Amino acid sequence: MSGVANARARESFLERARAELGADAVVTERTDLEGYEKGWRYGAGRTWAAVRPRTPDEVSAVLALASELGLRVQPIGANTGLVGASNPDASGEQLVLSLERLNRTIEVDAVDRTVLVDAGVTLSALNEALAPHGLTFPIDLGADPHIGGMIATNCGGARLIRYGDVRANLLGLEVALPDGTLVDALKALRKDNTGLDLRQLCCGTSGAFGVITRAVLRLSGIPQQRAAALVALASGEAALRLLSRLESSAGEVLTAFEAISRNALEATLRHGANLRDPFPSGTPAYAVIVELTSTLPEGVLDLGTLLESTLGELMESEDGEEMLDVLVSGGRDFWEIRHQISESLRHEGHVLALDLSVPRSRLPELSRRATKRLAETHPFVTVCDFGHWGDGGTHFNLVWDPATAPREVDVLTRELQDAIYELCVRELRGSFSAEHGVGPHNRHYYERFVAPELRRLHEALVREVDPERRLGHRE
Amino acid sequence: MSGVANARARESFLERARAELGADAVVTERTDLEGYEKGWRYGAGRTWAAVRPRTPDEVSAVLALASELGLRVQPIGANTGLVGASNPDASGEQLVLSLERLNRTIEVDAVDRTVLVDAGVTLSALNEALAPHGLTFPIDLGADPHIGGMIATNCGGARLIRYGDVRANLLGLEVALPDGTLVDALKALRKDNTGLDLRQLCCGTSGAFGVITRAVLRLSGIPQQRAAALVALASGEAALRLLSRLESSAGEVLTAFEAISRNALEATLRHGANLRDPFPSGTPAYAVIVELTSTLPEGVLDLGTLLESTLGELMESEDGEEMLDVLVSGGRDFWEIRHQISESLRHEGHVLALDLSVPRSRLPELSRRATKRLAETHPFVTVCDFGHWGDGGTHFNLVWDPATAPREVDVLTRELQDAIYELCVRELRGSFSAEHGVGPHNRHYYERFVAPELRRLHEALVREVDPERRLGHRE
Questions:
Q1: Do the chains contact at A197 and B200, CB–CB below 8 Å?
Q2: Is B97 in a helix, a strand, or coil?
Q3: Nearest-angstrom CA–CA distance, A387 and A385
Q4: Pairing of strands B393-400, B286-294
Q5: In chain A, which residue's Cα lies nearest the Cα of B155?
Q6: What is the pLDDT of residues B437-473, one digit of tens each?
Q7: What is the band of A475 on the pLDDT scale with cuts at 50, 70, 90?
Q8: CA B87 → CA A162, B23, B40, B50, B235, distances in Å?
């Protein structure tokens, strides 16, 4: 499109969008646009305007108008993503489509244990509305994203072993295709096998095929009780043995199993706020937060007793030697440590946060082999891994002091990603993006590691719904 | 293809398949072929040969060879499907690709709680191999299908409220595309968000995009205890209230909630083997089997006591009036009744078994409105509904005496499907195929009820992997 034609198309868009959606739906002030341009961790670009529809029909109208005028569109939710997928690119061409005002519908069906929800509702707002019904949408995250963004990235979080990922709790979906067509698959059905499933196409594909406007989610009961322990372990292998024992003995009430490596724990104790060292006699190779929850009352099932007796028996068993210490929560919140790790690491230097997963049985091998390899090639880097060992996910954080490092951050980032992703994906059959999805930040590795046949199928779908590639990032 | 060219291609295929896979891999005897031609409930056609590969590479070789020679291929698993999707069509053109010998691999990783399994392994063989590890693949079905077929139809079954469907337990997949290319996505990962997901494309799409050769499945612990009750209820609404109460009070240990309507129960008591009438003082509107299971030992959580006290309290509450009777299992197996319903109904006349689902809160409305409508249009039909009310699925069986019915079975089948599917799908936002998938038997309704945009995306994918439409059914 020529510069003049492009300027005319933009002007026409703004005029018609103001007329159809109201003047306050359109943002063009430079200072107001900046909030859409920069991502939470990665991603930064430029936009010329943002539009903020309030209903699915308005989303549809915006996309149809952009389509008619040949304008590119970049959707954005709560901007909490970690791969730069929701911010405009550097071209300055993209119109931002913000879902922030698509947040009015939260319709609960308590018998069905489902909710119909607008894509722009935040996780916290949804759970606040569900609480009076004794229900919750149980995906547990550090951030507070929009429901639509959670679906587009198929969030996992810290309690996946109990509740599954977003996909497992997604019953229905409404999506606006790039040309504005609204596809209604808003079914509140737990069983429905009628061919290609819109939910599965749009969950975890970063919005490549359309803009999610509404969803039907399956809900869970709010737990009535909770018991937690912090266990000091002599090795990663010992942590896995503890996981196996707990899965056998605590079964369906095991809700979280979060491991924190020695390096990550020490950094957190150095920089975290109001933290007492849980293991003053020596930081273990891994500290594991074990959490049990239940919707059953204590009179029927006493989680505190169950957890104490299970861990007590293990201490006495042959595996006891590798369990160095056990702290059972007497009101102490072990998650306080967990939630301060990321922030604490930033005080130690530059942090490259890799979002990996491997088969659970290979988690210790990943840490050991990566540490050994980096000691040879990048001895100035410290491995500070922690994460969701119960589901095989690990926040594999690499920390170094940029002032004394031999090369620039960008160069090192690429070197380290190359080395660790190769180990994780090719040698251990893991994933280079366990729960953050694919975006400009890791797109290069998508090309490298994802099977060419799958990329071809992805392209075939994009050609079908968006032949001019006007939606989202192009690279 | 001309008749001569076709005959030559077949001959060439047989010769090369015998050379590559061994003579016993190829079946051409008419009597041996008959078993592949007729389906379990629907589906009947004709084939000229069957080939039985033993490994993923052999499946790949068969497809590549068929592709080279321009031959059509129809895959078949254990032939337990209920929509005719696995049998050859009437053209006589299709080569049958049977997975019956692709059943050698069952590799358990006990720490990971996963298994790598060949697509031709039966559900029962898998669970037998898992039992020594204390593990199970918890999809509970009446039939004994292959794992590959279970994935292609995304089976649900009777314990979905506890364990989810096949999709929820599927971690990795290997698929042979129609041209023979093997796509390896055999990851044993609980978290992996790297774009379009092969599992989601191939699960529940009846093998449209390729032949499933291997899978990685997530496993669950075998329950240590089980408690069951049979509850007599005055209405469908009362059954839903019981479901809500149980979800609140039994939470995570509620494993099955199966409703049986009066008509279905009476027919089963008339024709079933060795059944005692559980409610001799009068058959209730609905009888519900409630099952709790747990991997916790009885000393920690006593399911029998929990179930008795929960139901006892409900009997004493304001909802007690609509709970007509409660039988708690003292060794009695209430599933005996449940498992004899389908067979019993066949003694009553012709059975049209519709596999419906609606939002759970609308199950009573479905029964009431369908019964009322049929009483006006088809008064000779009896509604005998039963099924998985906990997940909104219902086997909506319509029974009539063909000897006295005013029209032929085929004509009536179409009339009744039209009427009930319209009510279920359009008026109650339900599904015309809750768990059986789509095949020749219900293909017509796929065209009618599935969004045109989704069908278009399905076609785009088929064009990409199978431009000549050689795999599976064409209609």
A1: yes
A2: strand
A3: 7
A4: unpaired
A5: A193
A6: 998 889 999 999 999 999 999 999 999 999 999 999 9
A7: low
A8: 39, 23, 10, 11, 41
State the angle between helix axes of B452-465 and A452-465 in degrees (0 to 180), rounded to the nearest 10.
Answer: 140
User: B276, B333 in Cβ contact below 8 A?
Assistant: no
* Beta-carbon separation of A189 and B253 below 8 A: no
Residues of chain B with C-beta less than 8 angstroms from the C-beta of A205 = 195-196
Q: What is the 3-state secondary structure (H, E, C) of chain A?
A: CCHHHHHHHHHHHHHHHHHHHCHHHEECCHHHHHHHHECCCCCECCCCCEECCCCHHHHHHHHHHHHHHCCCEEEECCCCCCCCCCCCCCCCCCEEEECCCCCCCEEEECCCCEEEEECCCEHHHHHHHHHHHCEECCCCCCCCCEHHHHHHCCCCCCCHHHHCCCHHHEEEEEEECCCCCEEEECCCCCCCCCCCCHHHHHCCCCCCCCEEEEEEEECEECCCEEEEEEEEECCHHHHHHHHHHHHHHCHHHEEEEEEEEHHHHHHHHHHCCCCCCCCCCCCCCEEEEEEEEECCCCCCCCHHHHHHHHHHHHHHCHHHHHEEEEEECCCCCCHHHHHCHHHHHHCCCEEEEEEEECCHHHHHHHHHHHHHHHHHHCCCCEEEEEECHHHCEEEEEEEECCCCCCCCHHHHHHHHHHHHHHHHHHHCCCECCCCCCCCCCCHHHHHHHCCHHHHHHHHHHHHHHCCCCCECCCC
pLDDT averaged over every residue in chain B: 95
Q: What is the pLDDT of residues B178-193, one digit of tens each?
A: 999 999 999 999 999 9
Q: What amino acid is encoded at A372 in this protein?
A: K
CA atoms within 13 A on the CB side of A250: 33
Asked whether the beta carbons of residue B194 and residue A431 sit closer than 8 angstroms, the reply is: yes
Given an 8 Å threshold on Cβ–Cβ distance, is A429 in contact with B187? yes
Q: Give B318 to chain A, closest Cα distance, Å.
A: 18
- Tell me the residue length of chain A: 475
Q: What is the distance in angstroms between the Cα of A139 and the nearest Cα belonging to chain B?
A: 13
What are the tokens at A237? 């292998």
Q: Which residues of A touch B153 (CB under 8 A)?
A: 193
**pLDDT, tens digit, 9 for 90 and up, residues A320-329:** 889 889 998 7
Q: Give the H or E element holding residue B371.
A: helix B363-377
- Taking the CA of residue A156 and the nearest CA in chain B, the distance in Å comes to 7
Chain B: residue whose CA lies nearest to A435 = B193
Task: Please give the model's pTM, rounded to 2 decimal places.
Answer: 0.96
Structure-block tokens of residue A470: 């006007």
* Cβ within 8 Å, pair A193-B436: yes
> Edge to edge, what strands does the sheet with B170-176 contain?
B106-109, B114-118, B211-218, B170-176, B182-185
SS3 of B10, please?
A: helix
Dihedral class, residue A93 (left if φ above 0, else alpha if ψ from -120 to 50, else beta): alpha
